[in-house]
Write a structure and sequence with these properties.
alpha+beta; 5-stranded mixed β-sheet; 12 helices; 37% helix
């Protein structure tokens, strides 16, 4: 086939050109966050050690995820395709064929596991061997638990010929027996299958997947220096439909629990007072306090009642806070109990997520714990001219996913992007059609 200058390309040259176009490390870093009410995509490039320059962000209002699980892969596939094309247009590239993604949602939990690799005689420890060990360990866990998937397997430490190694990387060292000790984040098989189908139907590939707690920890620990690594911390991620508590003390994750309630359910509690949902949501964000005793000056709000009731309702700030506090206590009760045994080993609690923006949430949580409570921040990671909105908590998971993605590419240089085949896309579309028909 001729190029624009009339030159004919041979098959080998054309194949090499195509391969070069889809090498992952030639593309910007791209992360996707699938939320319950929207899907966000962020593109960035690495600019030095653990620093990112944001190239662009796009958001599509789409309700295609419920409690962290894709509801219908075809709908999610359309949203993924659309938001990535919008992002590509924004940053001036033809296509973004791949993305990193962080997952979370209901039934996410952790378990400690060990896996060994016997090289028979002393040989070099390579990244390829470590990757193979992780893949084998993940497969073993999933084979023993058919309903479970392992979206993340995080190394805690290794032993080389029985001697614990506390420094990484391991490449260049030699050992006959390699033992890996990991924290496995486990979720439902349904979560992984539907997510893969959604990306296939979008004609995109998942370059690597991580878990949301890992992404948040990456963002906060990088931005906050060594404090998290040395002191340990808990992260309370308050989303719309889920609330997740993750506890970390170097070098391992100690606890992870997901409660299938969040900011959406707080809004529903306000709605039950006779207010339309959209108005209840605005009232929560503008005037909602985590507890009535945190209101410094009493106030009243006058809002339209729901269509069923009609007219107008008057509510005091204390009444609104009382309703919010009832639901907030219900959501957090189990998590705060779970946190108690670890408090002596930790220094602080980071809070993040859209539902964490309630007025007074910091003092409310300080009353519930013996920890310093702070908003998690990724501000120290962003370089160059930064839009003010990019500092908001809703972008923390995306920034953390990009950091993990940069580490992944550094460990897998020159990896080729593998887009789903036409056959995969057709098969997944047919499956979604039959599922919808049922």
């Amino acid at each position: 086939m001729p190029d624009t200058r009339g030159r004919w390309w041979g098959e080998n040259e054309l194949s090499m050109a195509k391969k070069k176009q889809i090498q992952a490390d030639t593309l910007p870093l791209v992360a996707i966050d699938l939320g319950s009410d929207s899907i966000r995509a962020m593109a960035a490039k690495s600019v030095g050690d653990d620093m990112l320059q944001i190239l662009g962000v796009e958001e599509l209002r789409r309700n295609c995820v419920e409690q962290g699980v894709v509801k219908q892969s075809s709908d999610a596939g359309f949203a993924i395709s659309r938001v990535l094309q919008l992002l590509a247009n924004r940053i001036g590239v033809e296509e973004l064929p791949t993305a990193f993604v962080s997952v979370g949602g209901k039934k996410l939990t952790i378990v400690d596991v060990r896996h060994a690799h016997d090289q028979v005689r002393k040989r070099e420890v390579t990244q390829a061997i470590l990757d193979k060990m992780e893949a084998e360990c993940r497969q073993k866990l999933e084979d023993h638990n058919p309903e479970v998937c392992v979206p993340a397997l995080i190394p805690v430490y290794y032993k080389l010929d029985g001697v614990e190694v506390d420094t990484l990387p391991l490449e260049g060292r030699r050992a006959a027996m390699i033992e890996g000790f990991y924290t496995a984040f486990a979720g439902t098989k349904e979560m992984a299958v539907l997510l893969d189908k959604a990306f296939n139907q979008a004609g995109r590939s998942i370059e690597a997947s991580f878990v949301r707690p890992e992404a948040l920890f990456s963002a906060f620990s990088t931005a906050d220096g060594a404090r998290i690594l040395t002191d340990g911390c808990a992260i309370l991620d308050m989303g719309a439909q889920t609330t997740t508590l993750t506890i970390y003390k170097a070098p391992e994750y100690l606890y992870c629990r997901v409660i299938p309630q969040g900011g959406y359910h707080i809004t529903r509690t306000i709605e039950d007072q006779g207010i339309a949902f959209d108005m209840a949501e605005r009232l929560k964000k503008k005037c909602g306090y985590a507890s009535a005793d945190l209101i410094e000056q009493s106030f009243k709000v006058h809002v339209p009642a729901s269509e069923e009731i009609g007219g107008q309702l008057t509510m005091t700030g204390e009444d609104l806070a009382f309703q919010i506090n009832l639901k907030l206590d219900e959501i957090l009760m189990e998590l705060m109990k779970a946190l108690k045994p670890y408090e002596a080993r930790l220094k602080r609690l980071y809070v993040t997520g859209g539902a964490s923006m309630l007025k007074g949430i910091i003092p409310y949580l300080q009353q519930k714990t013996n920890l310093e409570v702070l908003y998690g921040s990724h501000a120290g990671i962003l370089a160059g001219k930064v839009e003010e909105s990019y500092y908001e908590p809703r972008y923390s998971a995306l920034v953390g996913t990009l950091l993990l993605g940069a580490d992944y590419r550094a460990a897998h240089p020159g990896e080729e992007v593998k887009k789903p085949t036409f056959k995969q896309r057709v098969e997944d579309t047919l499956v979604s059609m039959f599922d919808a028909a049922e």
